[in-house]
C-alpha cells in the first residue's frame, strides 16, 4: 500500500483510529509499570530507603522479587476477574474502572513512607503495586477484545497491534525516566518517587479520552440495542447508519449470536469444550499469549539493568542508558511493523519471521551480547510482540470473547510472573544457557505457527468463525464439518 493510499485509509477510518489511540493509553501505563521497577530497584536511594542495602544478598533478592511479583499477582487476578463484569455491564464502564483502580494503586506507591505510612513503607508499596496490578490486569484483558469488536476488519490488525506499540512506548518512557532520575536527581527519596509519580500520567490520559469513545458495537448487538450499534458502526466506518457495511455487519453478528446471548458466565465456560471448532478457537488465544512469555521478553524487561550489568556495563546510570536504548529499539520496530506489514504480510508469516532470529538470543559476552539483545528486540516486535494480541482478540468466538480473553491474559500474567521470578535464578546458575532455553522455545513456537495457525488478516470476526468450520483451515486437521451444530444452544433454558 502506497503512502497516499495509507493517508486516505487513515482519513476514512479516523474515528476508529482515534478510538484505538484513546484506549491505547491503557497499554502505555501497562508497559510503564513493566519497565519501571527494574530501574527503580537499581537505584541506591530506593535500596537505602526501604533497607534493601542492609539485607543479605539472598534476602535482598527475595524482597526485590516480591516487589516485582506482587504487581503480577494483581494483574493475574484483575485479568481473570473482569470477564463477568465486562459481559454484564459492557466494555467501556469496565475500561474506566480499570483506569481508576490503576491510578489509585499508583498514588499509593508514590506516597509509600510519607506521613502515617512511614513505619509501614514497604507494606504500603506492596499494597499499591497489587492494586495497580489489578488495574493493569483488567485493562490488558479488556482492550484487545474492545478493539477487535470495534474496529473495521481492514485495519483491525493495525489498531489491535497498537496495544504492543503503546506497551513499548510505556516501557521506553519508564526506562528513560529512570535514567533521568539516576543521572540528574540527588539520591534522596524524590529520586525514586519521580518514576512512580510519572506512571499516573498515562492513567489520567486514559481516563480523559476513553469516555469520548462508544461502547463496543458487538456488545450492543448482543444486548439488542441495534440503533446504538448502527450509529456506533457508522461512526467508526465513517458512513451512514443505513449503509450496507453497517447493515451487513449487524446481520452477521445477529446470526452469530443467535441462541447464545443468554449464556451465563458458567455456561460460557462449559460452551468452550462443547464443539471442536469452538474449542480450537478458544484454545489458540491462551496458547499464543503464553508463547509470548516464553520468548523471554519479560526476562529482559524486568531485569534489564541487572542483565546489562552482567554484560559489562559500568555504573547504574550507564545500565539504565543501555536499557533506554533497548526501549527505543522496541518502539521503532513495532511502529514499523504496524505501519507497513501487519495487514499486508499477515499474522502467520510475521510470527514465523519474528521467531527466527530470536533463536539467536545472546550467548556471547560484552558488547556483542548487547548488540544481540537489540537485534532480538527488533525481531520480537515483528512477530511475538504485537501479533498475539491481534490473534487472541480476533480468533476468540464473539459470544465467548470475554471469557477467552480473561483466560488468555491470565495465562500471560501467570507465566510472566513465573519467568520474572525464575530469571535471576537461571542467570545465576545457567548464565547464557538461560537464553538458549528461550531460543529452543522460540524454535518450537515457529513450528507450531507454521503447522497449525491459519491466516486471519483482513477477515471479519464472523468470517473467522466460518474459517475454523472448514477442514482447510491451516495445515492441521482441526476443522469440523459445516454440518456439525453449535451445541451452545443446548445450554439455554428450554423455554427460550
From TrEMBL:
Catalytic activity, as annotated: myo-inositol(out) + H(+)(out) = myo-inositol(in) + H(+)(in)
Keyword field: Membrane, Sugar transport, Transmembrane, Transmembrane helix, Transport
Location within or outside the cell: Membrane
Chain ranges passing through the membrane: 16-43, 63-82, 94-111, 123-147, 159-180, 192-210, 278-300, 320-342, 363-382, 402-420, 432-453
UniProt domain Major facilitator superfamily (MFS) profile: residue ranges: 19-457
Record bears the keyword RNA-binding: no
Membrane topology: Multi-pass membrane protein
Alphabetized InterPro entries for the sequence: MFS_dom, MFS_sugar_transport-like, MFS_Sugar_Transporters, MFS_trans_sf, Sugar/inositol_transpt, Sugar_transporter_CS
Annotated family: Belongs to the major facilitator superfamily. Sugar transporter (TC 2.A.1.1) family.
UniProt-recorded name of the protein: Sugar transporter
